[in-house]
């Protein structure tokens, strides 16, 4: 299977401002994301996970190395076919659910009949029936996040990048949102890269979990879960689920301690 996205020796260094030293946040990282697979990235706090996602999304340039998406090198610009979902609720409070979801398509000048059909499908798929004309303030956090996911998926991205999209949700909602995300992944055949703090979420959702070291984050290991494509949240009760999650924690524990130590020493 071919790589949809490839990182070759990618690093990211934030230049120091006002006399502060530069900060080496990431890398060098080498990573290949095979088309149609579901990946998660876990790592200690501050190891560079969001930086990695920003570099792949083209929201920040790599300081060194190459990012190749669908065969094309990118240099800090958003590649065609890439959609990003962030943790913070990024719905537009002044627009209804329908208009939030339709936002990107309208900007692209898509005709209103097509928009109406696609938005109807998304509302059904994301379980937002009956809330078409509600405003974000009238929705729960989980529903608002579904609106944001639907808005991104409307543009039919081939590569979906998610930065802690369920971070603010309770455990049950996260599991159910995970199921929805798996359904969407299967229906769209997209390649998914999910950044998460939650090892159980990474284990449940992914084909492969990439484990990062303490900052500057490099790839320590990749754990293959071996789940079938038609998995759902019921796998959390399987013995292999506990074994995989424990394996991830064993890999991460020492790195997390290193990250804490750095924090304590630098105040
Ligand atoms: N815009 C920026 N300018 C300078 N330093 C930054 C910037 N963004 C992030 N950093 C630093 O880069 C390092 C990596 O940050 P990043 O947010 O990528 O880590 P993370 O793994 O996503 O963290 P967390 O898990 O806590 O969300 C941190 O030390 C952070 O302080």
UniProtKB/TrEMBL annotation:
Domain ABC transporter: 5-239
Pfam families assigned: ABC_tran
Keywords per UniProt: ATP-binding, Nucleotide-binding, Transport
PROSITE patterns xref list: ABC_TRANSPORTER_1 (PS00211), ABC_TRANSPORTER_2 (PS50893)
GO molecular function, one term: ATP binding
Gene3D superfamilies in UniProt: P-loop containing nucleotide triphosphate hydrolases
InterPro entries: AAA+_ATPase, ABC_transporter-like_ATP-bd, ABC_transporter-like_CS, ABC_transporter_ATP-bind, P-loop_NTPase
Keyword hit for Transport: yes
PANTHER family associated with the record: ALIPHATIC SULFONATES IMPORT ATP-BINDING PROTEIN SSUB, TAURINE IMPORT ATP-BINDING PROTEIN-RELATED
Family designation: Belongs to the ABC transporter superfamily.
Name of protein: ABC transporter ATP-binding protein
Native source species: Microbaculum marinum
